[in-house]
Design goal:
Layout: E1 2-7, H1 12-24, E2 28-31, H2 44-55, E3 61-66, H3 70-76, E4 84-86, H4 90-100, E5 104-108, H5 114-126, H6 133-144
Parallel strand pairs: 1-2, 1-3, 3-5, 4-5
Helix pairs in contact: 2-3, 4-5
This protein binds D-ribose.
């Protein structure tokens, strides 16, 4: 799968680990930075380009990491068509895709360890939107707000 990944300094270390792990699984990774640890960098500079790439379908899914995952989700959701959520549990990682068509997973690099992060990413990537009538109806109500 073509996956976009991005992080600020708070998520840099976890992003690097996830990048290597996803590549080892055979995924095609587009890294939107940061490309080095810089404690003064700002998450929108990396997360917004990632969100745009997800919406334009340059990548199929996105993974955005900051210290808590909060800033990344706030920023990504400003982009029309981005559906980003901070996820810390397995259920939400797959149900967010299945019911809500989540396309960007946000993680807190200072919150989750790398093994839990791998489990969350695996659940997110393996999940597919169910697209049942109730899901489409709810999504349509959300999408109305983007017009
Ligand atoms: C950066 O220090 C930190 O504020 C940021 O990574 C993130 O946690 C924001 O939500």
């Amino acid at each position: 799968m073509k996956i976009g990944i991005a992080a600020d300094h708070g998520g840099y270390e976890l992003k690097e680990k996830l990048h290597d792990w996803l590549q080892s699984l055979g995924h095609d990774i587009k890294d939107f930075g940061a490309y080095e640890l810089n404690n003064t960098d700002d998450y929108p500079d990396f997360v917004i380009p990632l969100a745009r790439a997800v919406v334009s379908k340059e990548v199929e899914r996105g993974i955005a990491v900051c210290g808590s995952g909060v800033g990344a989700s706030v920023a990504a959701n400003k982009i029309t068509g981005a559906r980003a959520a901070l996820v810390n549990d397995h259920f939400s990682a797959h149900q967010g895709v299945e019911d809500d068509d989540l396309n960007i997973l946000c993680l807190g690099g200072r919150v989750v360890g790398s093994m839990l992060a791998q489990e969350l990413v695996r659940s997110f990537l393996n999940a597919r939107f169910k697209g049942e009538e109730r899901h489409l109806r709810r999504l349509e109500k959300v999408q109305q707000l983007e017009k």
